[in-house]
Amino acid sequence: MRNPSSLELWGGIECTVARIRDNYRNQIAETGHHARIDDIDAIAALGIRTLRYPVLWETIAPDNPDECDWRWHDERLARLRAAGVSPIAGLVHHGSGPYYTHLLDPAFPEMLARHAERVAERYPWIEHFTPVNEPLTTARFSGLYGHWYPHGRDVRSMLRCLVTQCRAVVLSMQAIRRVTPAAKLVQTEDLGKAFSMPDLQHQADYENERRWLSLDLLCGRIDSSHAWYPAFLQAGIDRRQLAFFIDAQCKPDIVGINHYLTSERFLDRRLRDYPDFHRAADQPPYADVQAVRVPYADGLTGPELRLREAWERYRLPMAVTEAHHGGARDDQLRWLMQVWNAARKLQGEGVDIRAVTIWSLLGCVDWNSLLLEKNGFYESGAFDVRSDPPRPTAIAKAAEALSRTGEFDHPALDGLGWWQRDDRYFAQIRRLEAPTVISTQRKLLITGGTGTLGRAFARICSARHLQYDLLTRADMDIADQASVEAAIARHRPWAVINTAGYVRVADAEHEPERCFRENADGAELLARACAHLGIPFVTFSSDLVFDGSLGKPYVESDPVAPQCVYGKSKAEAEKRVRQVAPDALVIRTSAFFGPWDRYHFVHVVLRDLAAGRPVQASDTVIVSPTYVPDLVHATLDLTIDHANGIWHLANQGSLSWHELAVRAAREAGLDTGMIFREESAAITTSLSSERGLILPRFDNALQRYVLENTMAWDARAADREAA
To answer: For 225-283, how does the pLDDT look when each residue is reduced to its tens digit (9 = 90+)?
Structure first.
């Protein structure tokens, strides 16, 4: 069934090819789409019928403008066409062209136009084009801030980069329309707004006029009366060059608005209220922060307002051409639906808005550093490419629902996005009232209320605005059927996360019946009750279901062979849960450490070393240390996605207990001379995954643990704890 609303759902694949010095970043390669043509079928299966797709100059003619390799694009564009998906062909995406040109090259526009003509000749059935994505944003990053090639750092370079790109758009569309007269221009731009305290209003006004420059150029609005006209002349762009755009009249057929939470800024000279990294480089300096982080911009931000401004300025058909948020899954859903609902509201008021585009369908890499750092920082989208094949997330389910019915619901949507809550403000200017609580939210049920993991889930659920009920043994005995059924009937959760169980590995050898009751019987009863009610169920297992003899990290399909009572109880729990609830999610993990309790190896090591006490640790038992916050965040994402089966979640990396102690000490700045090797049998129970490595690297987690830990690792702190 087709969407009864006239608002369409489009899709997009992050496809930036950015030159940084003499190196190129290619998001199609980094997300793996370059080697996966089946991605197209998965996207089409969501019901998406219009897709922003790369036909990028840099990838087709990288070495010589007259030497083109079309093979990759031929195959994929044919697959799109066969799937009934219409591409919006992107020709340059945050790029500066192949190495033989750049954004300050006067020949750039004519060369891109030649590429555009070749694209139109080769694919005459393509009707929609974006010759240059976000020209102003790219001009700022390449010509003003120095991030990308040609690394300019002044207004003159920015404006020249901008005019080069916009002239390239005009010439490209003229060339395309000689081949395909009905071709349409979908011109994208990141649209934000600047707000400020009164003493910086001039800077905010300056930036707010600047944000329209690319669209104003293409619409022929920059004449001698335009506020920025003198700046163009001062940059060496003469009247004839500006008149070109007035004469060309290359108005977009669709104005594509890309809007992010980072797009709206607040400017303030009171630097003491903000972290240092938010300082602008101007003199005198001022803070440049996300507007949603300060109360002064309340009611002035958001996609509805920015879309309304664009409509009132241009009165041209519009689409949201990028709707993406890189945070937790619940916030990704909340942002998507906020944008979707804003577009629908405006459409209902008569605004000609055609579509909302789920951007980064396959995610993106290192955009948290604007591609300047190669950390492999991955943000998933509708699919998580860390799984092979890419795993559909809750965003994919949202896409499927929106494309077919125009509606989507999920319990995570009951909460507020972080940008809507009162705890979002910087500490110095935070409002005094308590955070908003919505009592009608659907809730998670979390067992193990007195344990490390249960309390961590409660803490992180609160931070993510996911309502929950945290139950102790007194609230529900998970190994008693009547108690389980009564508690679930009373709390009526939308999902159950079981962190309860017997955790004392050594003591289990003397209490096998109790261990099996709490770990196996309890997990089975919970799973059975959830399966009967159709409630998602998540439970935790251990690396100790393996005997440690494999000699390499274990993956999910490796056969279990537990050697201790605790491991046997977990293996039995896995078997029973999967029998009674095939859709349950069973997470194997290992060697917890975290910032909110003191009952783990890393804390004990740092405490003892800080107090001058020796530490002994095995150099032959290999594990995968797991940072509790990472584990909880990933589990919540998977729960929202309704993932199932067995999944190994541990921070990436394998090391011995001795190596863990040494690396923790070094990270904390403590002497490693008091760490001694302890003899033991050689065992490797470290974990890897064939389903997807979704937790960060161990070294990254350890750095964050030491940074975030509230205890200062010095002798005085250790002495106070001992006392």
So the answer is: 999 999 999 999 999 999 999 999 899 999 999 999 999 999 999 888 888 767 776 77
- Domain residue spans of the chain: 8-424, 442-722
Closest CA to 50 of 151, 127, 113: 127
In this structure, are residues 596 and 579 in contact, taking their beta carbons and an 8 Å threshold? Answer: no
d(CA 330, CA 332): 5
Inter-helix orientation angle 394-405/329-348, to 10° = 20
> Is the pLDDT assigned to residue 3 strictly greater than 50?
no
The pair of structure tokens assigned to 32 is 């793996």
- Predicted confidence band at 721 (pLDDT cuts at 50, 70, 90)? low
Distance CA(52)–CA(14), nearest Å, equals 9
pTM reported for the whole predicted model: 0.94
Instruction: Say whether 442-722 and 8-424 share the same fold.
Output: no
> Which CATH number applies to 442-722?
3.40.50.720
**Assigned superfamily of 8-424:** Glycosidases (3.20.20.80)
Place of tokens 């305290």: 197
Strand 655-656 to 621-623 pairing = antiparallel
Alpha-carbon distances, residue 426 vs 278, 292, 378, 422, 513 (angstroms): 12, 10, 26, 10, 51
- Nearby residues of 4 by Cβ (< 8 Å), 6 or more positions away: 405, 406
- Rounded (10°) angle between helices 715-722 and 601-610: 110
